[in-house]
Amino acid sequence: MISVAERKFSQPFLPINLGTFGTASAEVRTETWLKPDTFQSFVHPSTSKSVSADPDEDFDFVFVVEEFGVTFPFYITDVDWALERNEIKLLLDHAGLFSVDAKLVGVWQERDDDEPLFNLESFNFELKEKLDTPLANFVTSNLWLMVGLASKVTIQIPMMEGYHFSLSYKTPLDQLKSIFAERQLAEKALIVESTFGVDLHFPKKHISADDVEALSFAFSAVTTDSFEWMAREITVFPPALAEFAWMVPDTPIPIPIHFPTQDVLKTIFGKQIDLKQFVIHIRKALIVNHSEAREHMNRRDGSPVKLVLRPVDGKLHYQRFSSPRCQLAEIGPRLGRLLRAGPDLEKRLAAKYTESFVAIYQGVDKSTLDGLLERPTRMEEE
User: Fold this and answer.
1) Which residues constitute the domain of residue 252?
2) Are residues 114 and 53 in the same domain?
């Protein structure tokens, strides 16, 4: 038996700062009006109903993002308004996962022979609170990301006599980038959580590089039969016996290494998860401590030999042995559409970066642009 004791990974994982859901605000143009009696009969509904498969008409407030083919339905749990104020505040709840403060800003216009009408001028919303679950973070990040990337968003308020309007948002590119990173991690956490039957508590403000690496590894482990993982070094302890002498050849040349099944454990957000067993191999490995390991192996006394291996291609190759396959129970059509939207979101975000780059350098001649983009040589860097 060969014991794999330590893996020094060189995967470029970085910590991620969260909490980037700022206020989204946009001007509105609408031909429909709100009347005071719309609010006077308002009754607080139950918010315990699932949003997984119900029609949007059953909810009070819906974000419709047609470009992505998705809707985000909410219940209105509170309304704060007065004729002397030029705003209507709504508290929205999405299946108990997260709540949103929404504000309709406009003017109450008095009429001589009838009740006043509310003329909407702008609409903004901001995150009030959310659960620390992967699902809550996944849905929240999708809402903010899709609203920020879409050219048009339609707001439907069935509770307010079918009131609706359309608008578009201009979200800073850096904010969209960080929200997309959170979406990707929340998706991975959601799949890992469901596959292994554990409850993960998603951090509120910061995810460490170790958690990013562990989560990405676990996601790869359950979504593919085999995968590669960057590794700078790996330390193993084969016994000093003749049958393992091949692992330390006479000369320090790169050799292929195949390990028997290995148990892999990962700690994600403070919870240890048993990913079960994998077969690991290295296409070609250099023995960093060759002389020391060779001398120890030649003793043939069965004691563990410390062997520090450095993969030539910098990769460990994992083959699924007993690790479970990806499972998502009862995802429903809404969640399914959000999960499938990842590639389109990434493509649109990349297009935003291209547009931003073109806008910055518009009017710059080609030779100047080439000079700005040219990388310095190593000698110039030094």
Assistant:
1) 3-13+202-320
2) yes
